[in-house]
Amino acid sequence: MISTKNIISDIWEVPREWVFEHYLGLTERLSGQSVKIKSVFNISEKTPSLCVYLDDRGVYRFKDFSSGHCGDGLSLVENLFSLSSRGAASNKIVNDYNTFILNNDYSAIKEYKAQGKYQVHDYEMRHWNVYDQRYWMSFHIGSKILEKYNVVPLQYYTMRKVDEVGLAFDIKIDINFIYGYFKEDGSLYKIYQPKQKDKKFVKVKDYVQGSEQLTGAKYLLILSSLKDIMAFNKLGIKNIEAIAPDSENSLIPESFIKSAKIKYSKLLVMFDNDEPGLEAAKKYKIRYDLDYINLPMSKDLSDSVKDHGVDKVREALFPLLKKAL
Questions:
Q1: pTM, rounded to two decimals
Q2: Residue spans per domain, the chain
Q3: Phi, psi dihedral angles at 322 (to 5 degrees)
Q4: Which fold has domain 11-103?
Q5: What CATH number belongs to 208-325?
Q6: pLDDT tens column, 187-232
Q7: 3-state secondary structure 33-85
């Protein structure tokens, strides 16, 4: 007799957490927690960069900082197996799940257990010192530009997590070279720790970096970071100003891009001079039809200024901008 144990035909009958557990080979059930593993799209990666997490609607999603891939379970399978569409990914998931449940017992989790996440809870500003000066001036970024973009050195910051019964757990980070990125209203949106290898940035809230400093030039350049924006300011190239997303792997909201296309004669993208940077720039071309350029110098614009100086970077970048605009 042919078994019809739990045979399903609709993708919505497949437990969403199973998709990530199965195709990522997770060793634990997803029950509300976040998980970080090495990228399945980049087998040479040495440090974990693929995150599986619950979004605001309580749905599991993933973000792979190594490759730039992100989305739901369908997106994971579509990219992982190079499938032609989400429909093809749906069919594969249904077939694989049916095969799996013929030989395994699997019960969907009815309710996720609330998992506290550490968030920035407190911080203390401090005065600038000679070490800060040496660091920022190596990129030719001085006090006036730092003040313009509301960059402030921090003495420490505290991360707090509240568990399911309301107990709070704090971690105080008190190290050298911590900088807070602030909005014009004084609210903190990001923490930058340039000397930390694994966690250089701590995101506090969504924000298009440099957006509050725009003055209405003719062209708009989308760079990869606030540090690149500040370095670009030193080049003194007229009629063009710059912004940056939260990171190369997060797209600037479509509403912002639509508004910018009305205000500016042209928008242009220039991200890091490496494979993830180029892949991120291509996403802006696909999603928003924005052209992109590549500066063939150091990894990013600020590193190029540090390594080669303002004049040489300007000489290399200006013809690329002129041709693209």
A1: 0.69
A2: 11-103, 116-205, 208-325
A3: -60, -40
A4: DNA Primase; Chain A (3.90.580)
A5: 3.40.1360.10
A6: 999 999 999 877 889 989 999 999 999 998 999 999 999 999 999 9
A7: CCEEECCCCCCCCCCCCEEEEECCCCCEEEEECCCCCEECHHHHHHHHCCCCC
